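Hey, resending since the last one bounced:
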Amino acid sequence: MNIPADLKYTSDHEWLRVDGDIAVVGITDFAQGELGDVVFVEIETEGESLEKGETFGTVEAVKTVSDLFMPIGGEVAELNEALADEPELVNKDPYDKGWMIKIKVADSSELDFLMTEEAYQKMLEA
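The structure tokens again:
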């Protein structure tokens, strides 16, 4: 299982890559593996400001639909338009082409409460 060291992680199996005041968000390799083949990603919150923990969309796999949660508060600045035509990118390349949203970070101190790669690995092993 791939868990890049340069990302931050949540207990909801989402990852963040922070670049200045923008955070790119997706689901982890573990999460996409548990979901199975992703067939649809629905995100209708572009332009909205949401709090940490609020639902920003859903991901639909063959057998289940799962909510996607904001790992930090902020404005949903952009969504990955490629997922509309190729939702399988979430399975094939979860940390690059399968990203879901970009957040304009509201409070950078919230980043301090996210997990490192090591902490996320330990959570999976527990």
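DSSP finds four helices and nine strands in the chain.

Sorry for the duplicate.
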